[in-house]
Amino acid sequence: MHCNASFRVALLASVAAATLFACVLEAQTPQVPQPTPDTARDLKPVRPEESSKTVAPNAVGQSYALIVGIANYKNLPPGSQLRYPGRDAQSVYTTLISEQGGDFPASHVHLLTDSQATLANVSYELETWLPSVTAPDDRVVIYFAGHGFISGSAGYLAPYDIDLHNIASTAIPMETLGKLIGTKIKGKWKVLLTDACHSGAITPETDPKQLNQLLLDVRQSIFSLTASRDREQSFESADWGGGHGIFTYYVVQGLKGDADTNGDGVVTADELAEYVHTNVRQATSSRQNPTSERGSFDPNMLLAFNPDRAKASSQQSLSYGTLVIQSNMDDTEFWLDGKKAGTVSKSAALRLPGLTPGSHTIKALHMGYEPDGPREELIYPGQETTVSMRILIPRRRNQSAVDLLDQGVEFYKKGFEANYKKAEEKLNQAIALDPNYSEAFMYLGRVENALWQDDKSTAAFQRAIAIDPDYAEARVSYAAALLDQGGLDEAVRQLNAALEKRPGDGTAFYLLSQAYAREGEFAAGKKAAMRATEIAPGNGEGHFWLAECERHLNEYSQAEAEYQQYLHLTNFNSGVLGNANYYVLGFLLGMGKKHHAAQQDIWREQQGQANLGICDCESMRKNYDIAAPFCEKALTLMPSDLWANYRLGTIYVEKANAHGQTTASADSSGVTDLLKAARVRFANVVSVNPDTDEAGRARKYIAKIDQALASHP
């Protein structure tokens, strides 16, 4: 509004004073800031993760990846659908974020599968996201598994919504992809991996020198490895690691370390290219020939680093061997050299080709049974070795240990520090009687986490997983503890491993959405949260984290609906829970939100955060009268929340301004009351944490409010 002299003179004194308050605030107070992603809404301190990892030689800056896998196409007939690109993409994703593979931060790897991989979404990732985050010293990987087509002598990768009647406008031209990688996407090392029919069409049918001119910026290094030559077929089969594209199977095995022929722990571009070329040609009797441009990349480009595989001396292998694993029991986990290699069933053997000749450690695991192994097995060059794994002996528990576990769990469920300590004692006694009691270790991890014993908690969860690597519940619980500790990337790794075993685990998906949201990856968080709400629509946590992600994506109407759904689904009070605080209730409802029960009830905080979320959404749409009651409700549940106080203070300022503009109803007392209420909220912000940005802005608000109130008592 505009405050002019004639307007003020014409009003009664009280109205003039009220209007002037609003004008002073409008002219001098800072603009109400937009909420930022987001320590503002999660002010609990996050400790940086300590790392003692061996650093790979020639390490680069940051690492980013886009992984796309499409098996089911919207507009293609049933006979043209594929089987394994989704599994291929998930396998590449898992390998890249693994510490024994690419060691990419999980938040830096975007995964699009099937209906997510539309032309619009893939184009956004290539044209907007990657160019916006990459820097000249970074490493970038782009992987695509799905259909590829040739039309008018040009090659195309097919997104989910391709129209075969209009390929040029509904697919991704290889030429455009090459230009984006060579010019717009920054990086020291760039990797393009394509597993598609005719993916070799990225190499034009013209002079190879023209390809290099097209794809390469001479100051940068690009490694392009495609599944086949132009006009060849790219094969997929259930025989490869339980079901993969043959090309991707060898890419993954190579990145895990099998391509490391000189034993230094590093997989270079040259090593991966040679490994994939050799094995795919051999596996398909030369019907499929992966292609790479040897002149277009630094052969020593570091693609993966696994220090566990580094050897004292170099051992060059002239030919690789194959291991075929059989089992007497379905859903048997098979581990090779300390890493999960796949799942075996009675009716389908697991075939693992491309192995370095020599001694390998093998082990078969099935939860609830004693393992078969570990033991050594020799792999011979150029030969196939068949091994039968026998899962025979049920794991027998010491009854006293079982009783102690039950007692420990009962104490754990009661909540509060004194009960946690009793639970800790009982669980340690159970473990002393049965050192391989994975369930006791899992609950001990939960208890130590509740006691803020992070190192002990981590050790217990890791031991539970080491005993039973397919113990998905332990991995999910470990991930929740990692979220409490700030270990977001490792939490994503554990959740990803759990979802491979239990793809319908709604809890794992909502925790995954929480991890992404806290890293600022709200689009990825939204996808995980939507999956959580599909699997378990009655679990409020999935709706809460979906709302959080949508709010940060400026989707305020959708976010508010999800917050309301969360409040509806959790419409109970902490008294109903008794002594079992929200964190302890099955370790499900409040996962990743740890508190001492005696200090704060997590139910109250989550309810408060949901009300604050609705307040934010309405405030951002300038519906201040609707927003205010939700912020006020939030503060009854969490009076010391910095952001709730700050947001309500800005709302009172906006209401005061609006009140002052209404000549018919304006009165100085109404505006004064609003300004005084705003001042209280801003003072609370400064009191809660004087060092935050919000506190700095709150001080400016307080100064302007005091000036206005002093001038017009």
Please, could you describe this protein's structure?
The structure is a single chain. By secondary structure, this protein is α/β, with parallel strands linked by helices. The protein folds into four domains: about 100 residues; about 250 residues, Rossmann fold; about 70 residues, Carboxypeptidase-like, regulatory domain (Immunoglobulin-like, Sandwich), CATH 2.60.40.1120; about 190 residues, Serine Threonine Protein Phosphatase 5, Tetratricopeptide repeat, CATH 1.25.40. It has 25 helices and 20 strands. A six-stranded mixed β-sheet has the order 2-1-3-7-8-12, with helices on both faces. The chain has a four-stranded antiparallel β-sheet with strand order 16-15-18-19, with no helix packed on it. Strands 4-5-6 form a three-stranded antiparallel β-sheet. The two termini are about 20 Å apart. The N terminus is likely disordered.
How is this structure best summarized?
This protein is an alpha/beta fold and 713 residues long. It is built from 25 helices and 20 strands. The chain is globular and about 90 Å long.
CATH domain fold name of the largest domain: Rossmann fold
Q: Whole-number radius of gyration?
A: 30 Å
Q: Structural class, please? A: alpha/beta
CATH architecture of the largest domain: 3-Layer(aba) Sandwich
Query: How many β-strand runs?
Result: 20
Strand order of the largest sheet: 2-1-3-7-8-12
Strand content: 5-15%
Give the tally of structural domains: 4
CATH first level of the largest domain: which class? Alpha Beta
Number of helices: 25
* Percentage of residues assigned to helices: 40-55%
